[in-house]
Design goal:
The chain has helices spanning 26-32, 74-87, 100-111, 131-147, 152-161, 164-169, 171-182, 186-197, 203-207, 226-235, 251-254, 256-270, and strands at 3-6, 11-15, 37-41, 93-98, 116-122, 213-218, 239-244. By secondary structure, it is of the alpha/beta class. The protein has one domain (3-270): Alpha/Beta hydrolase fold, catalytic domain (Rossmann fold, 3-Layer(aba) Sandwich). Strands 1-3-2-4-5-6-7 form a seven-stranded mixed sheet, with helices on both faces. α1 (26-32) packs across α12 and α5 packs across α7. The chain is globular, with a radius of gyration of 17 Å. Bound molecules: D-malate. Pfam families: Abhydrolase_6 (PF12697). Residues 12-262 form the AB hydrolase-1 domain.
Length: 271
């Protein structure tokens, strides 16, 4: 599994959204690495991480069994993260995730709550997919395998991935996210969609997590809107909620200064 790491101190592991990679956290990394050890993995099949040969923990298959890639799951993506923590000899980390990264973070919490010293959920939700969403994902996965992802994936996703203000006022952010989407391998895109399609509801997992938790949401997020964030914060016994104005689904890229200002006090308190 490929990951980017910098800084020293309390480890903060940040899991990226779909369909981008660990580089989405770079604007945050350069602002936090003076305070924390920031570790950002690429999810299986995306960025520079391999699709095959990663963890088979919790999926009943021997490690390296190629057939595991035929059974994509968010639990398997979480197992990859737990393997990385073992490899880095980190018994506990502050774990954060944006959107799909949040789904994976909740799956890590389900599998190994003792590894999570604090939880940062950004523009994500606890609910699984309904039938229509699941069908859409499987169609996107099939199309990615058939045609590759050039042009159409970014065209389809960009309007909703970024907030209205970013589309109107931050052309460099729009261009940067398009570049990240275009760089993703089609097989990884297909794998991630199939994995997300099968994910369970995580509400019970959140209800039983007694550690510190911060939920952040962009006010202009149309994929996982503020209502989803309120539900997350309400489910988490120690949940706090921050809503950021002028940003959408990827607030840490859209306005990293505002994002850091919002999360730094919480990070300082728990690290
Ligand atoms: C993401 O940003 O990771 C995706 O929008 C998540 C999803 O498709 O549910």
């Amino acid at each position: 599994m490929h990951y980017i790491e910098s800084g020293a101190g309390t480890p903060l592991v940040l899991l990226h959204a779909f369909p981008v990679d660990a580089r989405m956290w770079n604007p945050l990394r350069i602002r936090l690495e003076d305070q924390l050890r920031v570790i950002t993995p690429d999810q299986r099949g995306l960025g520079e991480s391999a699709l095959d040969g990663l963890s088979a923990r919790n999926v009943g298959a021997p490690s390296g069994d190629r057939s595991v890639t035929e059974r994509p799951s968010i639990d398997l993506a979480a197992a990859d993260i737990l393997d990385l923590l073992d490899q880095l000899e980190l018994p506990q980390v502050v774990l954060g995730g944006c959107s799909m990264g949040g789904y994976v973070a909740m799956a890590v919490l389900r599998a190994a709550p003792e590894r999570v010293a604090g939880l940062l959920l950004v523009d994500t939700k606890a609910a699984g997919d309904n039938d229509e969403q699941r069908t859409n994902r499987l169609n996107v996965a099939d199309r990615a395998e058939r045609e590759g992802t050039n042009d159409w994936l970014a065209e389809n996703m960009l309007p909703n991935l970024l907030g209205r203000t970013s589309h109107e006022q931050r052309p460099e952010v729009v261009a940067g996210v398009r570049e990240l989407i275009d760089a993703q391998p089609a097989v990884g895109v297909a794998w991630a969609q199939r994995a997300m399609a099968g994910r369970p509801d995580s509400t019970e997992t959140l209800l039983s997590y007694l550690g510190p938790a911060l939920v952040v949401v962009g006010e202009e997020d149309t994929i996982t809107p503020p209502e989803n964030a309120r539900e997350l914060a309400a489910a988490l016994p120690e949940g706090e909620l921050v809503t950021l104005a002028g940003v959408g689904h990827l607030p840490s890229i859209e306005d990293p200064d505002m994002f850091v200002e919002a999360v730094r006090p919480w990070l300082s308190r728990i690290s």
